[in-house]
Amino acid sequence: MRRTSRMKRRRGDIFRELHRAMDQIEKPQTTSVPFAVDEAGFIDRQCPGTQCRGHFKILEADWYEKVSDDQVYCPFCHHGADADAWHTEEQLRHLGEAVNADMHRHVDREIGAAVRRSRPTRIGPIKLTTRYRSGAIPPVRPAEATALRQEFSCDECDCRYASLGSSFFCPACGHDAVLANFPNTLETIRKGVRALPALQQTFAERHGADDAVDWGRYMLELQLERLVGAFEKFSKTLFERLPAAAGIRLERGVFQRIDDASKLWKRATGKGYEDLLTPADLQRLKLYFERRHKRVHTDGVVDRKYINVSRDPTYQEGQRLVIRAEDVLEFVDLIEKLANGLRALVR
Ligand SMILES: [Zn+2]
Ligand SMILES: [Zn+2]
Questions:
Q1: In this structure, is the dihedral angle defined by the CA atoms of residues 105, 108, 114 and 116, taken in order, positive or negative?
Q2: Is 327 in contact with 342 (CB distance < 8 Å)?
Q3: Angle at 292 between CA 234 and CA 335, to 5 degrees
Q4: Ligand 1 center from residue 66 Cα (angstroms)
């Protein structure tokens, strides 16, 4: 009889202690998991937008100081969400493992303490041992390889971020990154044109030589539109930064028209395109703008207006323009020269 009552008391002790341990375990815990930072000080982020899921990086200091907790923008699609929504899949996995490991350590600690408090651990034939094995907190994984190395700095808020390929918006303020991105666009067009023969070869192997020729021609012609489109957006954004621009109403498509745009810049800054380019360069630029215009409006067929404006001696009315790789490359150089001159006017 005596033995039974003693056992009961001891069993009561351990169960009471375990009960206490469970109360402790159920209390909310905070686990702090550090982010991996790459060697340049950037952390990885991923767009939560289901159509996008784009990866980018942001300078760690800027993430904490410049980005608002309530609203972060995707540099690719401008999706907005609060600051907790931007973990990469890899970071979420790591976060899950770290929290899980921390929870195991916590349970282990409390159960271990309960068992120690209810000494002796040997009660009759029953032996109590702690069965929980501590999970180790996983080490911080290295940030993604520094492949995302196109770095940008926002014109508006100075936030520094990086992406693989072009970004279009600042993650901190959502501002359109057209100015920061413009040199990359030019470089991408150059690289694409230089890589075209090799790409055409691959195309020919898969789809035949005829289609490869058509596709190559189309890709070159397309670059004229791309260049004018990018330059138009760049010019407009830059122009609007001029204090004098506040009182000037911008006509639609004005930056697609060389003479009109030049006059506009002259009015606002005292300098037009003729002050930034040689007469020969300006004439070549006009020719390429005009070729792009014909490509869009007459499917590349030369008319009287083209000959008058471009003063291109190589074509007659009714002919179709042929856009060569060297034309596109020259056009990129001219646009770059002019864009650099315009930037200097705004600084
Ligand atoms: Zn996005
Ligand atoms: Zn910004």
A1: negative
A2: no
A3: 40
A4: 19
For residue 175, the CA-to-ligand 2 centroid distance in Å is 5
Residue 80 CA to ligand 1 center (angstroms) comes to 8
**Percent helix, percent strand, percent coil in the chain, to nearest 5:** 55, 10, 35
Closest residue by Cα to residue 106 from 21, 34, 35: 21
Among all ligands shown, which has an atom nearest to the Cα of 154? 2
d(CA 228, CA 233): 9
d(CA 161, ligand 1 centre) in Å? 14
Contact predicate 321/289, CB 8 Å = no
Give the mean pLDDT of 198-227.
93
Nearest ligand for residue 49 CA: 1
CA of 51 to the centre of ligand 2 (A): 23
- Percent of the chain residues topping a pLDDT of 90: 59
| Residue that the structure tokens 């196109």 belong to | 150
Distance 89 CA to ligand 1 centre (A): 14
pLDDT of 61-78, one tens digit each? 999 999 999 999 999 999
- Whether 65 and 158 have beta carbons less than 8 Å apart is answered as no
Q: Which ligand is nearest to the CA of 81?
A: 1
Backbone angles phi, psi at 53, to 5 degrees: 55, 30
